[in-house]
């Protein structure tokens, strides 16, 4: 069966928020939210900071599972390490997940960035992988962070004229962060929307 990630809304070059599940050499399962970039119909990549269990497991096992969900609690529990062994299926996907795909690693490369928004010097590994199985249990769309940022930016813009100085500074800082995220992970439309917002703010005399 041919695999086509566009079936779940994944488009080449775009990043989506997912929950990656892995196992260590002893078979112990782990889950963590990770951004996954679609490289084509049946391959993906991600960049994972050194020090995480997910990265250690991927390096040792050369495989991982990408779970697709729009459930805020699942993302939260995965980050807070609240998923229990019984929350995983036999094939190491998350139980009752809408959709997941299994990946086999094809390359692992060091990626050191001298200036990263998170910390000055970041050390990570870029992982490329082939998708070997795609399981869709329920119709679902992958989640991209940009649309939320566009909506929040519109809300800030609509309030900026009536805000006091402190609140206005908060809105402008948040707008700058939204621009950064959208430059990194936004679609063409998200970027166009932010250009419109930027132009409007500049017209109003705000430097952004
Ligand atoms: C939505 C979201 C996306 C994330 N994407 C990444 C990512 O792409 N790379 C990464 O190294 N960490 C990412 N993180 C942070 C990891 O989930 C976090 O470091 C986690 O604690 C790793 O857990 P682990 O040690 O169980 O692997 C993300 C977190 C969230 C909430």
Write up this protein.
The protein has 208 residues and is α+β, with helices and mostly antiparallel strands. It has 2 domains: 5-136, Electron Transport, Fmn-binding Protein, Chain A (Pnp Oxidase, Chain A, Roll); 146-203, no CATH class. Helices cover 33% and strands 31% of the residues. It is built from 5 helices and 6 strands. A hairpin with a 5-residue loop joins strand 1 and strand 2 (29-40). Bound molecules: flavin mononucleotide.
Largest sheet: 6 strands, antiparallel, barrel
At the first level of CATH, what is the class of the largest domain?
Mainly Beta
Here the CATH topology of the largest domain equals Pnp Oxidase, Chain A
User: Quick one: CATH superfamily of the largest domain?
Assistant: Electron Transport, Fmn-binding Protein, Chain A
Fraction of residues in H or I helices: 25-40%
């Amino acid at each position: 069966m041919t695999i086509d990630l566009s079936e779940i809304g994944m488009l080449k070059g775009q990043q989506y928020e997912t929950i990656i599940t892995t196992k260590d050499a002893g078979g112990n399962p782990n889950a963590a939210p990770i951004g996954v970039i679609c490289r084509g119909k049946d391959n993906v990549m991600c960049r994972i900071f050194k020090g995480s269990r997910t990265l250690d497991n991927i390096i040792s096992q050369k495989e991982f599972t990408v779970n697709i969900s729009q459930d805020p609690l699942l993302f939260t529990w995965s980050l807070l390490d609240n998923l229990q062994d019984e929350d995983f299926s036999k094939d190491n996907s998350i139980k009752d997940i809408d959709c997941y795909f299994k990946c086999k690693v094809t390359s692992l490369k060091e990626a050191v960035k001298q200036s990263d928004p998170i910390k000055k010097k970041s050390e990570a590994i870029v992982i490329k992988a082939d998708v070997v199985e795609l399981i869709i249990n329920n119709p679902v769309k992958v989640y991209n962070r940009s649309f939320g940022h566009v909506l929040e930016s519109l809300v800030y813009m609509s309030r900026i004229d009536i805000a006091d100085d402190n609140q206005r500074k908060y809105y402008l800082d948040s707008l700058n962060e939204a621009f950064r995220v959208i430059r990194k992970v936004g679609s063409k439309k998200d970027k166009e929307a932010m250009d419109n917002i930027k132009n409007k703010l500049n017209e109003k005399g705000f430097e952004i």
